Amino acid sequence: MNAKSGYQTIFKGTFLFGGVQFFQILVSLIRGKTTAQFIGAEGMGLSGLLTSSLAMVITIAGLGCTTSCVKYIASLNKEDDSYLNYVRISQSIFKFIALGGMLLTCLLAPLLSYISFSSNEYILSYLLLSFYVYFSLYSGGLSSIFQGLRELKCIAKGNVIVLLGGMVCSVVLYFLFGKRAIIPVILISPLISVIYFHFSLKKIFHRARVHQFSYEQRKNIFKEFVSLGLPLVVAALIGNLSTYTIDAFISSVGSLSDIGLYNAGMSITNRYIGLLFSAMATDYFPRLSAVAHNVEEVNETVNQQGEIIVLFAFPLLSIMILSAPVLIRLLLSSEFIVITSFVRIIGFGMFFQVISFCFGYVSFAKGDKKIYLFFEGIITNILKVILNCLGYYFWGLRGLACSFVLMYVIYYIVIFLVCKIRYKYIMSRAYFILTVISGIGVSIIFLLSFSSSLLSIIISILLTGVICVFSVIQLEKRIGLKEILIRRFKRQCKK
Cβ(244)–Cβ(52) under 8 Å? Predict the structure, then answer.
C-alpha cells in the first residue's frame, strides 16, 4: 500500500465512524444543554457522582465479558447447527451477570452513600439505581452479541433509538420534575436499550431452531468469557476508581456545584474532540493490530494516523479555545460561564492528549498486556488522582485544569519513550514538523485567549483562519481531499 492509499484509508475510516459519533455527540450536547437549564450545576453534580460511583460496580460485575463475548461469537462457525445455541447461552450468561450486578449494588448501597456523600441519605437512591446497573450490564451484553454477529445496522439503529428516546424522556422529565427526575432519567436510556436489543435478538432466534443447553455448557463459556476479559476489566476498574475518587474528593473538600462545573467543563471538551478519538479508536486499533509484529509497518501506521489526527485536531482545538464563552452559553447556560478559563486550559491540554493517543494503543496491539496495564491502567490513573486532588485543593477548578495539562505532558513524554525504546518506534519527519507547528499555533491561540483586548481577538480570529486553511491544504496533499469530495458528490447525485 502506497503512502497516499494509507492516508486515504485512515481518512475514510475516520470519516465513516466519525459520522456515527457526530450524531451521538450532537444529541448528547442537546441533552446536556437542557439538563443544565433545568437542574443546574448542583443537579448535574449529583447525577455525575451517582453514575460515576455505579460505573465501578458495573465494571466489577461485568468482568470484562462484553469485550470477550464479541471475540467469542465472531469466532463461531455460522454453518454449525448449534451456532445460535451458543448465542442463546451468551444471552443467559449476561442475564446472570446483570442480576449479580444488581444484587451487588443493593449490598453496597449504604457504603456507596457514605463514601460518596458522607451520609446515609442516598441509600434509597442507590437501591433504586440497582435497576440501572441491571439494565446497563444486560444491554451491554446484548449489544456485544450483536457486534459478534456483525449486525452493525441493528446496533446503529439501536443507538439512534436509545439516544433520541433518552433525550426526549430526559427533557420532559427534567422539565416537569426538576431534580426529582434525576434517578428516572438515569434509568431510562439503558432500559430502552434492553427492550430494543432483547426483541431484536428474538427475531434472530426465529431464523433457526435453538436447542436446549446444559448448565455445564453455560459454565464453560462463562469461564472463557472471564479469562479473556479479566485483564481488560482491571484497567477499566482503575480508571473508574480514579474518576470516582476525584469526584468524591471534590465533594468532601468543595461542593456538589464544583463537581457539576467540573463535569460540565469536561463534557464540553470531551464531546467536542471526542469525535476524533472515537473514530480513531474504532478504525485505528484493528489496522495497528494487523501489522503489530512488523516494526516498519507499525511505525508507518502510527505516523500516518498521527498526522491525520493532528490535522483534524489543530483547527478544532484552536476554535474551541477561541470560542469557549460562546460554546458554554450555547451548550450549557450562563450559570456555567465561570468555567471559561477551565475549558480553555483543558482545550490546550487536549493537544498533548491528541499527540499521545496513537502511542497508547501500541502496547496492547502488540499483546504486551503487562506494559499496557502498568502505564494505561496504573501509572496514568495514579498520576491523574494525585495531580487533580492537589490541583483542586490548592487552586480549585483552575487547578484541576492545570493538572490535566501537566498529566498529559508527562504522559506524552513517558509513552513516547516507551514506544521508542521498547518497540523501536521512529517518528517521521512529517509527523514531527506537524506536531511542532500545531503545538506552537495552539499555544499562541491559548495565550491570546486570556486577553480581552480587541487586537488580541482579531489576531486570534485571523490565526485560527490560517490554521484551518493550513490543515485543509495538508490534508489535500496527503489524501486528495478535493478528489474524494467530488467523487462522493457525484455518487450522491446519481442516487
Answer: yes
